[in-house]
User: Which sequence fits this backbone?
């Protein structure tokens, strides 16, 4: 797979793709990023969308340790490293492999395989324009309840200021490196790590197709979108 870039457009962004997770909730007995969608692994479909974003100059994948060679053949345009036992370890391993000339880093879930290039560009542009940390966000549409350990409702949460967060999450390189170096606990969200440093995290509008494929039902929905020709 090779990306087609126009020379007058930027290629100043590196994208880190943690793809070493087992994906237990998805079932199937193979790493989640390698599950098929429309006859193609989630990971390769994800990376093709990344490569179509004009800002992206490098993709670094953190793959399962026993699948590095296979993933390298699956996505030959990407640089592939061995991931860790957690998402945080995988992001750190991929981040360490990004050459110093890339000052804008996006972190993107392989399971968000239908994320359109337009959203990738929107996040990259916001970082390029001066924000240190940028995340895509969608308004929460469901009613949210707070419950106790016995499952009893203790409060109804005002959803007006709540957002569901997607990827790619974008960062100035120095901030992301500092956040990983300072992290004492395990995190599944890089924006949360930089928040602990006191950095301001900005949002851009998310996209409905950037949902995370986590369960078998998610796969059905993703397949239906593809068959309906709804994806960029």
Assistant:
């Amino acid at each position: 797979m090779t990306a087609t870039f126009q020379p007058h457009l930027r290629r100043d962004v590196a994208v880190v793709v943690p793809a070493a997770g087992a994906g237990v909730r998805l079932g199937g007995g193979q790493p989640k990023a390698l599950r098929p969608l429309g006859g193609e692994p989630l990971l390769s479909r994800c990376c093709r969308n990344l490569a179509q974003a004009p800002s992206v100059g490098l993709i670094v994948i953190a793959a399962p340790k026993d699948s590095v060679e296979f993933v390298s053949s699956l996505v030959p345009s990407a640089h592939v490293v061995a991931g860790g036992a957690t998402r945080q370890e995988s992001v750190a391993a991929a981040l360490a492999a990004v050459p110093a000339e890339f000052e804008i880093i996006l972190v993107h879930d392989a399971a968000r395989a239908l994320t359109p290039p337009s959203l990738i560009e929107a996040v990259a542009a916001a970082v390029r324009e001066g924000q240190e940390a940028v995340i895509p966000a969608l308004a929460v549409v469901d009613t949210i309840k707070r419950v106790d350990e016995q499952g009893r409702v203790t409060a109804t949460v005002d959803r007006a200021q709540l957002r569901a967060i997607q990827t790619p999450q974008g960062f100035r390189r120095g901030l992301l490196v500092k956040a990983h170096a300072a992290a004492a606990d395990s995190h599944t969200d890089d924006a949360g790590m930089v928040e602990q440093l006191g950095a301001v995290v900005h949002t851009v509008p998310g996209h409905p197709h950037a949902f995370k494929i986590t369960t078998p039902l998610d796969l059905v929905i993703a397949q239906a979108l593809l068959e309906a020709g709804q994806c960029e």
